[in-house]
Structure formats: structure tokens, C-alpha cells
Predict the structure of Trehalose-6-phosphate synthase.
Amino acid sequence: MGRLIIVSNRVPSPRERLQPAGGLTVGLKDALRGGESLWFGWSGNQSEFEGDPATGMDEVDGVTYATIDLTARQHEGFYQNFSNGILWPLFHYRVGLMNYSRRDWQTYLEVNAMFARCLRALLQPDDVIWVHDYHLFPLGQALRDLGVTGRIGFFLHIPVPPWSLVRSMPGAKLLLEDMQAYDLIGVQTEEDADNLNHAFRLNGLTERAGAFPIGIDPHEFREQAEESVRREEADRLRASLRGTALILGVDRLDYSKGLPERFRGYEAFMARYPEHRGKVSFLQVAPVSRGDVEEYRQLRCQLDELTGRINGAYAEFDWTPIRYLTRPVARDILAGFYRMADVALITPLRDGMNLVAKEYVAAQDAADPGVLVLSHFAGAAPEMDEAVLVNPYDADEIADALHQALTMGLEERQRRWSRLDEDVRRTTAGFWARDFLKALDEAPPVATPPLGPS
Ligand code: ADP
Ligand code: G6P
């Protein structure tokens, strides 16, 4: 087999290259280590140069990282506006938040074509290419246009809504047509695969989508949690809790995560279950993400206000109901917080998968596991039905679920957790990557290589 070429807009930072952590990086670690491999994407930097940029190369642990800069104009049109201001809300069922503009669509296509040209220069004939996420829907077709005939797979990390909704974006049909250039398209759930295949069918195209739910490296995460629970930060958190139960939320500050709805659920819990006042603390870690996009700025204001209101109404002079952080907390500290938390409150309005739910399960102490309260609308929910599943739009249901979780007996907690843990340990990130690549190898090829000289 030839080299594996991973393409994604965001590539691991130099620090992550040394110590892979989090979704994609962990997921691909095993696959990348199997043989010679290259990871291509955006450097994270902006430059003033308007032609095709030079490709920066760096090799760590046998993986070559090849990255290019974007201009400020491309960064705005391709990343900020089209990927995060149009595709992200649309694919998270939030068509009302979509700010479509033809100019951004053009920049999106232009950057995809540029990615294809820069990558093309690095390719060898038998390379297997695996493209990731919504920033790069048209990349496969752009590569085919440049004569690439090898295997190209695509994985979409975000949800896929029904075609009746997707088609509200001008150009949606063109995106579907471009996606026909991939030999295989992976999505997170059966529902996503059905929606995408149905969209292909309705447009007279070939069905190419299959469900490949992504996982984590549970062994690594458990070790991290066991180690980190003994760190000074965990001691400080424990001391500050003074015996109160800990409810933990961990998300990027993103409107898909249902944070205002979650805070209102906690408010309803305070109002309807006064016996828990003063006896629980809700810690929400939500580092700012995509802070230059208007909707994300508004969300931040909304949460500042809600936190103030709830704490103002229920705090005592020696107890605060919500602790809310918009600064990032390092993963090796956070893992210990997961292990200490009595309840994880994970209530996205829509989420491709939600790896935090799986990390929480992996971090638990088998002798005294916590309870996972999870939204029905996380991609993880169909696999995790032993969690306490909630409708994130129903504040009272969140309140009831919190009460149920905090009063659940040890036996039931262990029973639910061990089933969840079994699943998390079975469907790992490594399994996901291997499974997808095997299916890609077996998929009927879209393009046939030209006959070379014999
Ligand atoms: P998303 O991909 O939308 O960010 P996931 O739940 O799949 O959502 O999270 C991806 C990764 O980012 C996980 O490995 C998780 O641990 C990490 N992560 C998410 N939120 C935080 C946070 N507040 N602080 C540190 N890491 C986080
Ligand atoms: C989600 C997307 C990824 C993206 C990540 C962080 O997980 O599926 O493609 O990289 O969010 O977002 P950012 O905009 O900072 O890359």
C-alpha cells in the first residue's frame, strides 16, 4: 500500500505533533504510524502573498506535516465566513444563523482549488488520500480535475441534516456533485448516512456514504485521568468544593453545544430541587472558539448574562452555584476533573459525535463511577443509551435528569457505566481509522488510473 495522506483544514499544532491529544489527532495516530504518511493543511498563519503559497515541511515521529498559509482575505472568506458562518450552522440544523454570500462561496472554491494544487505537487501515484471535514467538501473533485486517480476518501465530523434543509444553501447541489469524486464518504451516525445518501438519490447521484462513528483512545485517557487526579490542580478543586457534588460541562464555546439551554436547565434544577442548593457546584469550562464570528460573540454575552443572573439569584455568601471559565484548561488537568465529577452534563443541540462524553466515561473510577447526562442530539447518543438521555431544549427535563443523577445509587451507576465503558473501549479511535481505511480500500473506485507504459 502507498502512503497515507491526511488532509484537514486544521493540522495538529507543533505541540500536538509531539503529544497527540484530542479527536482527529488521536484517531489518526495509529493509522499514521502504520507506514509512511503525510498530513497536509493550513498552517494557522496568515500571509500577504496572493499567489500559491510555499508549503512548509516538518517531520515528527515519521509523519511529515506539510502546511500552507492563507491570506487575510482567504482566511475571512474561506474559514471564517463560508466554513464557520455558512456550513457550520447549516449542518447543525441552524439555517437561521447562516449568513450566505456568493463572494464567500467563490473564496471557498478558490481555496479548495489552491489546496489541491499545493497538495498535487507532493503526491506519488499510489498514495491513499483521506480528506476531513466541511472546509474541504470540493477538494476531492479539485484533485480529480488535476488528474489524481488514486483512492480518495472523505470523512465528515459534523452532522448531516435532511436534504430539504441543506438545499437552502445556494450551491448545495454543486457540493453534492463534487462529493461524487470521493470513493467513500464516512459520517458519524446512521442518521447522517441516511440523510446524505437520500440527498444523493434525490439529485440523481450515486450513494457513497456510510456510518463510521469516531472514538477516543480510552486507555490513554484513563491513564491521564488517574495521573491527573493526583495533581495539585485536582487537590485545589477538591478543596474548593468542600464536600459538594461536582457537575461538569466541557465544550468549546459554540452555539451547537446548547450552553444557554444547559444553564437554564441548571436554573430550573435550582428552582425545583431546593434540597440541592448549597450541595452541588456546576463547573462549566468553555474556552472561546471562533471568536471573530458574530454569532459566537453574541453567545458569549448571553452566557455572561445568564451566569450573572443565576449566581445572583441563588448564591450564598459562601457558595456559588455556577463556576464558568472561558479560558482553556489543559487536557492533563481536565482529565482529573472528569474523574472527580459526579455528573457530566453534556447537552448539545446538535453534535457530530461529542468526544467529551466518551472521555468522561473513560476517566471514571470503576469503584465509584459518575453519571453521564447526555443530549439525544449528540452523535454519541445512539451508542450511549445507558447515559441519562435528555432533550436539551427542555429545562425541566435537564433539572429532573440532574436530580436523578445526583441521587442514583452505586449499583445503578456501576451498571450503567460498565456498559458505556465496554462500548467506549470497543469502538476506539484506532478502530475507527482502520475500519474506514479498509472500507475505502474495498470501495468501488471512482477513477481508474491511466494505463502506464508496461
Ligand atoms: P468539538 O469537536 O465540537 O470541539 P468534541 O466533544 O468532539 O467537540 O471535542 C473535541 C476535543 O476537544 C475533545 O478531545 C475534548 O477533550 C477537547 N475539548 C473540548 N472542549 C474542551 C475544553 N473546554 N477544554 C479543553 N479541551 C476541550
Ligand atoms: C470541530 C470540527 C473540526 C474543527 C474543530 C475546532 O471539531 O469538526 O474540523 O477543527 O471543531 O474548530 P476550529 O474552527 O478551531 O478549527
Notes: Residues 10, 133, 157-158, 289-290 surround 6-O-phosphono-alpha-D-glucopyranose (ligand 2) (CB under 6 Å). The CA atoms of residues 163 and 199 lie 5 Å apart.
